[in-house]
Design a protein that fits this description.
Elements: H1 19-24, H2 31-38, H3 40-48, E1 59-64, E2 67-72, E3 75-76, H4 78-82, E4 95-100, E5 106-110, H5 111-127, E6 136-139, H6 144-156, E7 160-162, H7 169-179, E8 183-187, E9 190-192, E10 195-197, H8 199-208, E11 216-220, E12 248-250, H9 251-254, E13 267-268, E14 272-277, E15 287-291, H10 293-306, E16 314-317, H11 324-336, E17 340-344, H12 355-363, E18 367-370, H13 372-381, H14 384-387, E19 396-399, H15 406-416, E20 423-425, E21 460-463, H16 471-479, E22 487-493, E23 503-504, H17 508-516, E24 523-531, E25 537-542, E26 547-549, E27 552-554, H18 556-564, E28 569-579, E29 583-592, H19 600-614, E30 622-625, H20 639-646, H21 660-674
Parallel strand pairs: 4-17, 6-7, 6-8, 8-11, 11-12, 16-17, 16-18, 18-19, 19-20, 29-30
Antiparallel strand pairs: 1-2, 3-13, 4-5, 9-10, 14-15, 15-23, 21-22, 22-24, 24-25, 26-27, 28-29
Helix pairs in contact: 2-3, 5-6, 7-8, 10-11, 13-15, 18-19, 20-21
Bound molecules: adenosine-5'-triphosphate and magnesium ion.
Magnesium ion binds near residues 278, 282, 429 and 526.
């Protein structure tokens, strides 16, 4: 029987935290792991106790797999914990949000101002008939009002569901109906790459497809009303769509006239806080349910410890709020910690490819949290852009979203962090709600490409095909100092954690089948992972994407990392395509850096490079030079579509595909190659 996932890549570089960092770190005692894992429930209760509760819980955890309930009997309000409880002292005047619009307009909002604005919006929602338990759908650009509206929903106990502002009318329509949302909040438009995305117009199309649950549409002015912009950019009217006096309500008519007092609704710990759809990398997106007490507890804890957050930090998580990363690390986690968060509306190449670095320089960002896809893009553009800016305010860097290839990690560490900033590679999912596998920057020596260890209190393990836990024995040997050979397999979570999803909205069967059927009592992540000699976790990509080549199970991550290791390659995606003899053959789609020229000789060289780096078994049969790779709108590579292309099938669910033209171009290219 082949090994569940073969381990090929051998990355040996290691970066222990510097003495200066350890000195000032929020957490530097490695004993925290044994302490937390000795009694995880008590550990999490300690963190829950750091929140304000209207009524304390009577039972910390009720666990009937797959159903977990945390802090039962407890009552609290998420908005109170993220806003009101910070007021009354010096934090009232602290900046909560520092925002930059794409055209260059900026705003700063203090915690005190945030409270007033959240109350006005909460009162507006009430005037529009929204009450506790009513679902509100948010389809907005990255503007402060998006965070404010989420907090306003939380304040009155109305669960929110944010739909990323790049989604189509059909995706919006589907989500509104899945949730039976009562109110839609949108904007006339938002700025993206120098253009206005006409959100209201797209929302009109969604409503025209039939959204009977929607009673009102609240529309804020972002792009189309003169005076909104500060840089004199013309403000076209088309962005407002068609005004329907029956249901459309202008933000400017409703919100400013509301009183700035609105009580926080005491919510049960297990009351719904939000529903959010997954990225759709592996199939049709799932509506993931998150509740209040456990979620808030864990985002509070992880923000504080993973990012070593300090009172004076300026925290920038570059994710759009439309993804879970934005929920947990733009809004709820940092704000529960009374942090100053940066929000930026547009793309990193507008007006020039140095925009991110300008934002960091201008606002003195100290903690930056972004995605490998962005880092690989910055590498492709070159160091000249970050080198133009003063990045000396940075003290910690994070990544999330995909496995980070060691070369990208090193580039981030050197070119952005100037070797001074720890890099935390954080693994988690929409379903997990918060970061689960990550270095503790003051304790754990990092290795490029490894997410290192489960956060204190989190139980993670690796299973083989036969349902055996291959990690327990391995960890035992690591602890005994034996440095056992790496093992690979399926990543599972062995015990409940506070921020875990409570289900797929309206579909308990799919919830059970997707996460709980394969390994009874354990949560199946759908990701492959390996454990190395030191007991570090390395994420290997989706198990659906694992390639079976001549009896060897090979992960996409390791082959892609070997390709990106070559100086000509900026980005790579590999898949297994059907092959008569080997079962599957490896097809690699690569983006070549502008400093190199694609040629037959280069593709041959790349094949040999992979074979030399990780072994002849992983030598790709095909190397296809591509201009772009198909990605979800959150920037993740959609390998399943590449498989569809390579095997000549009709494409699967493409609703979350960022740019359909990319797949069409690859199809042509692949067919040319075949003929
Ligand atoms: P869908 O579930 O619809 O296929 P998705 O899994 O891409 O979409 P998300 O919840 O946004 O949706 O992404 C979570 C996934 O992202 C993880 O399961 C993992 O595959 C990947 N991921 C996130 N962070 C990391 C990381 N640090 N290292 C490796 N992979 C990561
Ligand atoms: Mg997923």
């Amino acid at each position: 029987m082949p090994e569940t996932i073969q381990v090929l890549l051998d990355e040996t570089r290691s970066f222990p935290p510097s003495a200066e960092f350890v000195e000032q770190a929020n957490l530097s005692d490695p004993g925290i792991y044994d302490h937390a894992n000795g009694d995880p429930v008590a550990f999490w209760e300690g963190w829950a106790g750091a929140l304000d509760w209207v009524e304390r819980w009577h039972t910390a955890l009720e666990w009937n797999p797959p159903n977990a309930k945390w802090f039962l009997g407890g009552k609290l309000n998420a908005c109170h914990n993220c806003v009101d409880r910070h007021l009354g002292g010096p934090r009232s005047a602290k900046r909560a949000i520092v925002w930059e619009g794409e055209p260059g307009d900026t705003r700063e909002i203090t915690y005190h101002e945030l409270r007033d604005e959240v109350c006005r919006v909460a009162n507006s929602l009430k005037e529009l008939g929204v009450g506790k338990g009513d679902r509100v759908c948010l389809y907005m650009p990255m503007v402060p009002e998006l965070a404010i509206t989420m907090l306003a929903c939380a304040r009155i106990g109305a669960p929110h569901s944010v739909v990323f502002g790049g989604f189509s009318a059909e995706s919006l329509w589907e989500r509104i109906n899945d949730l039976q949302a009562k109110l839609l909040v949108t904007a006339d438009g938002g700025w993206r790459r120098g253009h206005i995305v006409p959100l209201k117009h797209i929302a009109d199309q969604a409503l025209a497809m039939g959204c009977p649950s929607i009673e009102k549409v609240l529309v804020m002015n972002r792009a189309g009303v003169p005076g909104t912009l500060t840089n004199g950019v013309p403000t076209p009217d088309y962005a407002t769509g068609v005004w329907n006096e029956q249901i459309d309500v202008r933000w400017s008519d409703l919100v400013p006239r509301q009183p700035k007092e609105c009580p926080c609704e005491p919510m049960d710990s297990e009351d719904l806080l939000f529903v959010l759809y997954t990225s759709g990398s592996t199939g049709k997106p799932k509506g993931i349910v998150h509740t209040t007490g456990g979620y808030l507890t864990q985002v509070l804890a992880t923000t504080k410890w993973v990012f070593d957050l300090k009172e004076q930090d300026v925290f920038w998580c570059t994710a759009d709020i439309g993804w879970v990363t934005g929920h947990s690390y733009v809004v709820y986690g940092p704000m529960a910690n009374a942090s100053t968060v940066v929000m930026y509306e547009g793309t990193p190449d507008t007006p020039d490819k140095d925009r991110f670095w300008r934002v960091i320089e201008r606002h003195k960002v100290s903690v930056l949290y972004t995605a490998p896809t962005a880092i690989r893009t910055f590498m492709k553009w070159g160091a000249e852009y970050p080198d133009r800016c003063d990045l000396s305010s940075l003290r910690l860097l994070g990544t999330v979203g995909e496995p980070i290839n060691p070369e990208a990690w090193i580039w981030y560490h050197e070119t952005i962090g100037k070797r001074q900033c720890p890099v935390v590679d954080t693994w988690w999912q929409t379903e997990t709600g918060a970061i689960l596998i990550t270095p503790m920057p003051g304790i754990v020596a990092t290795k490029p490409g490894s997410a290192t260890r489960p956060f204190p209190g989190i139980g993670a393990a690796i299973m083989d095909d036969g349902g055996h836990d291959v990690s327990a024995d391995h960890i035992g040997r690591v602890r005994a100092g034996l440095r056992p050979a790496p093992v690979g397999g399926f990543l599972v979570l062995t015990r409940p954690w506070p921020a875990m999803t409570r289900g797929i909205y309206g579909d308990p069967q799919r919830f059970f089948d997707t996460y709980w059927a394969r390994f009874p009592g354990r949560y199946f992540t759908g990701d492959g992972a390996k454990l190395d000699e030191d007991g570090y976790f390395w994420l290997l990509g989706r198990v659906d994407d694992v390639m079976l080549v001549a009896g060897h199970n090979i992960s996409t991550m390791e082959v892609e990392s070997a390709l990106v290791d070559h100086p000509a390659v900026a980005e790579a995606a590999v898949i297994g395509r059907a092959h008569e003899i080997k079962g599957q053959a490896i097809a690699a789609f690569v983006i070549i850096r502008s400093s190199h020229v694609a040629s037959e000789a280069l593709t041959e060289e790349l094949k040999s490079h992979v074979a030399a780096k990780i072994g002849p078994i992983a030598r790709p049969d095909d190397v296809i030079v591509a201009a772009e790779l198909p990605k979800t709108r959150s920037g993740k590579i959609m390998r399943r579509l590449l498989r569809d292309v390579a095997e000549g099938r009709a494409l699967g669910d493409t609703t979350t595909l960022a740019d359909p033209a990319v797949v069409a171009a690859l199809k042509d290219k692949y067919e040319d190659k075949e003929s």
